[in-house]
Amino acid sequence: MNIDGLRSRITGLIGREIFYFDTVDSTNTTASEIAAKTLEGAVVLADSQGRGRGRLGRAWVSPPGVNLYMSIILMPDIRSRDATLITIMSSVACATALRRASGLDILIKWPNDLTVKRRKLGGILTDLKTEENKISLAVLGIGINVNADVERFPEDVKSIATSLKHESGSDYSRTEIAAEVLNELDVWYKILKTMDRDTLLSAWKQLSSTLGREVSAVTSRGVFRGLARDIDGEGLLIMELPTGEIMKISSGDVTLI
Ligand code: BTN
Predict the structure, then answer these.
(1) Is the CB of 124 under 6 A from ligand 1?
(2) Ligand 1 pocket: which of 69, 94, 126, 182 to mutate (most atoms <8 Å of CB)?
(3) Is the CB of 27 under 6 A from ligand 1?
(4) For each successive 10 residues of the chain (257 residues), what is the average pLDDT?
(5) pTM score, two decimals?
(6) Edge-to-edge strand list for the sheet holding 214-219
(7) What's the pLDDT score for residue 251?
(8) Are the CB atoms for 119 and 160 separated by under 8 Å?
(9) Atom of ligand 1 nearest to the CA of 52
(10) How buried is 37 (Cβ within 10 angstroms: 0-12 exposed, 13-18 middle, 19+ buried)?
């Protein structure tokens, strides 16, 4: 990657400092470690990760030379109960940037899976620190499969994952993709900070592959099947169960049926 080229393309607060490593365990872990000593908007970027982390305790496959692994340090100072909006904001920014850069029909599966034709192109893992019911630190970890050869992914990931290259047949510049994503995040982070929920939620809804679909949700309270009706003002998924009961999901795994 051309880190100086990336630095020169940054337009706002996000990416004003970039720490680049050939390899780290997890860019989220490194970013959490350095957060107190750096500026808001700083980014930790690595060519590969030894222990890339996904949501729900899963591993994130992070081979060198092909993909993007980056974590952004944010200090949003919003209420803890609005935490899901950080996820909503970042998935809108990533999907918008990647659609523009690739022309692919990239959609968001609740809460923040970036997908193409139902296969996972990228994911976002947000590590939060709260103080007095406010979010003092959010480490936004973004993984995007850019030029990865999906056939080389582990067996269990192969059938559900994809990459920009796999979908379009072309190679992409990781520097360009990183710049697009970071600059778009800058736009949407400002919208989050002003708590313009309507703009955030309506953008997310336009890009959602989940709403209006029959889904199965694996949650800590059990597995539920139903219709994904909407998201609420805090970004929680509103499901209608076959009994007509309305249920809100705050975290877990959602599969389209
Ligand atoms: C998911 O499970 O969908 C979230 C995946 C997040 C992966 C990214 S890669 C950069 C950052 N560092 C990590 O260890 N995880 C995130």
Answers:
(1) yes
(2) 69
(3) yes
(4) 97 97 98 96 98 94 97 95 92 98 97 94 96 95 97 91 97 98 98 93 96 93 94 93 94 88
(5) 0.96
(6) 246-249, 237-240, 222-231, 214-219, 253-256
(7) 84
(8) yes
(9) 14
(10) exposed
How high is the pLDDT of residue 56? 87
pLDDT of residue 252: 84
Distant-in-sequence, close-in-space partners of 53: CB < 8 Å, separation ≥ 6:
26, 28, 29, 59, 60, 125, 141
Tell whether ligand 1 has an atom less than 6 A from the beta carbon of residue 102: no
> pLDDT for 85-131, tens place per residue?
999 999 999 999 999 999 999 999 998 899 999 999 999 999 999 99
Furthest C-alpha separation in the chain: 57
**Can you give the pLDDT at residue 137?**
96
CA angle 202, 207, 208 (to 5 degrees): 95
Report the C-alpha gap between 20 and 43 in whole angstroms.
Answer: 8
Nearest CA to ligand 1 atom 3: 123
Helix (H), strand (E) at residue 205 = helix 197-207
Amino acid at 46: A
pLDDT for 205? 96
Cβ–ligand 1 distance for 32 under 6 Å, the answer no
| Residues with Cβ within 8 Å of residue 33, at least 6 apart in sequence | none
Domains of the chain by start residue, with CATH: 3-207 (3.30.930.10), 214-256 (2.30.30.100)
* Residue in the block written with tokens 């809804």: 205
